[in-house]
Specification:
2 domains; Lipocalin; elongated; mainly beta; Immunoglobulin-like; 45% strand
């Protein structure tokens, strides 16, 4: 009985070993097959973004990118597109260069469509939209977007891109500010002026080299009011970044020809317990 038991035990061990080897071969075969899988296409071009939203006061061209989803090509890829939407060419935007065609240069992944917005600020806060749709590509071995029409929500994935242009208030936008104190002039760029009601505006980063304040470290805001007749009022205001006893006030004007804002500021400073000093200076803000 003992011999029979040993014989069965040895036989069972051989069967287990053969099964393990067989499974090992299958695993190796599957692994090699997976490792040998490489993407063979199809390669396609698409918009990098599906949506973008910008304010009409943005002065720099808005860049809409089209990219090649695949290896870089040694020859240029020419992509055609159509434009639709509620935004009006010549009134809300222009397309510098050749409209309707964007080229992905040789050995590059991206081509760019530039959209120059037109700031026709009229204190009517609405929005317009532009929809770019890819219509053709050369070489024709590429496809436009990825997936079937059902997958992309009405079109291939990445085949369309919608740019929303938000109306801005009359003085909204990005400015370069300049101030002169005595014989010295200080200038700061990328100053933002914004408003939610086109009546009261906020200037961010208005600290243009004014004495007595640590303007290298502090960037207080400043408020002014549009009076509706090209004149401005700077109401008396304090600021958490300044001393609690310091106040700002003044007047200003807007030039409709060049859109330059001029502010006549008056700052009352507490230099000691018994003495206040009033500092008067002029700042100008030029649209960038």
């Amino acid at each position: 009985m003992k011999r029979i038991f040993l014989h069965r035990e040895v036989k069972t061990g051989w069967v287990g070993l053969l099964v393990a080897i067989a499974f090992g071969w299958l695993a190796v075969g599957c692994e090699e097959q997976d490792l040998d899988r490489t993407f063979q296409g199809p390669y396609f071009v698409r918009f990098t973004d599906s949506t973008m939203t910008v304010k009409e006061s943005v002065s720099k061209p808005v860049v809409v990118r089209v990219h090649n989803v695949g290896p870089q090509q040694t020859t240029p890829i020419t992509v055609n597109y159509a434009i639709s939407g509620s935004a009006r060419e010549g009134r809300d935007f222009t397309i510098p260069g050749t409209k309707g065609t964007v080229v992905i240069p040789a050995n590059r992944n991206f081509g760019e469509i530039q959209v120059q917005l037109i700031n026709n600020a009229n204190n009517i806060l609405e929005s317009q939209s532009l929809t770019f749709t890819l219509t053709g590509v050369q070489p024709n071995t590429f496809q436009l977007g990825l997936g079937s029409s059902a997958e992309g929500g009405g079109g291939r994935l990445g085949r369309s891109m919608t740019l929303t242009i938000q109306d801005d208030c009359l003085f909204g936008g990005t400015y370069t500010g300049t101030m002169r104190v005595g014989t010295q002039t200080a200038t700061v760029s990328d100053i933002d002026i914004s408003s939610s009601d086109c009546k009261q505006y906020t200037i961010s980063n208005w600290n243009i080299g004014i004495p007595f304040f640590s303007f290298d470290a502090i960037k207080p805001t400043l408020r002014f009011i549009d009076n509706g007749d090209n004149s401005l009022t700077i109401p008396a205001q304090g600021n958490s970044d300044l001393n609690t006893t310091d106040t700002l006030r003044g007047t200003g004007a807007w030039n409709p020809r060049n859109r330059v804002i001029t502010l006549n500021l008056e700052a009352k400073l507490r230099l000691s317990n018994n003495r206040d000093t009033v500092l008067r200076y002029v700042q100008t803000y030029t649209p960038q």
